[in-house]
């Protein structure tokens, strides 16, 4: 059988085999051609959006309405203009403009110019709009006037992405005018982070009193060193507000401000006509954390910026706080009182230039609580020092002391934009003598230097406000015969 099969195969016509092969090959080619015919061909054509923008907007073809504003004309189309709430109301109501072919547009906002109108009108004819940070305020003004919500939102996002020392004041005031709360919040956050960490003369000249007041009263202000540095920054800012033409290096600013104020010490500067506008800002300086240092208290007295009664009340308050610590065994806050913490906590900070080992304390009398802060091996540690380290002042030997604190870390890029940040949040802590406590363990992958450390502390228990008509407590003192 095997031999017969072989003979039959051998007896087949070779030509017929070749035909079958060609037929099979042709069938494959036909299938490939059919597949190619069914495959969509891609050819880059001019997009519909670009065609509409070029033909209808730039060339003004088939225009059915002309808009005139600021000495310029635009040949536009009602069907596209109706995307604007402003024009939609105009054309759909009983306004005389609804039947006019030429509409003169009144522009009451000085922020709007022809370039902004060109961008805003053009946005009605295209899918995307590129907004330059330097032009965003004018475009926002025009978008608000014409009630273009999508473009307004895009302007807001552009502003939030480009906040810097050069733009923050302009963006904040513009956001206030046009109702962009999220932009205002972003600008305030930037200022809270950068006012003290990256001091800038031009920025200080631009900062308005109402904005500075919000910054100084906030517990989120990123203070470098101690509260005295907040006062010093305000002194420089006030000098620049009253001497806008001053031009010099920032290192010379404090000396020139002191020289200028030295000639005006006959009375407290904030009581003079020049000083009265700055009272709301200086009211929020936490003076109790300045007079706890002798050198700083002497500078306050010398400058004579603050009314004497301000300092008298703070001296009195601090004296009673010290007596409570000594005689009433006030060991510090034990119950959560975040509201009190936000308004009256001590603000201080430190810049860590590069990775390494650091140990420091902030100057000033803190009711015998000598707190050492250590940064080493990516750990931040608090230590209540009593006997193990030398201390220049009195140290409390009470077995336990309580404090409320919040520690924040941050690093910034060249424009002051936050690169990374960490926070402990509001915390209560009890420390025994010479006890250490690990406050934060950092991930080295997230660290970026220079690193800014900012702390808020409260060492004494908050006291309720004393009403003038509150009855006096009976004295616990006894006479000794």
TrEMBL record:
Family matches, as PROSITE patterns: BTB
GO BP of this protein: germ cell development; spermatogenesis
One GO CC term on file: nuclear matrix
InterPro entries: BACK, BTB/POZ_dom, Gcl-like, SKP1/BTB/POZ_sf
Primary site of residence: nucleus
Localisation per UniProt entry: Nucleus matrix
Record has Nucleus as a keyword: yes
Occurrences of domain BTB (ranges): 63-133
Family annotation (CDD domains): BACK_GCL, BTB_POZ_GCL
Nucleus is among the record's keywords: yes
UniProt feature coiled coil, ranges: none
Classification via Pfam families: BACK, BTB
Keywords: Developmental protein, Differentiation, Nucleus, Spermatogenesis
PANTHER family hit by this protein: BTB DOMAIN-CONTAINING PROTEIN, GERM CELL-LESS PROTEIN
Name this protein carries in UniProt: BTB domain-containing protein
Organism: Esox lucius
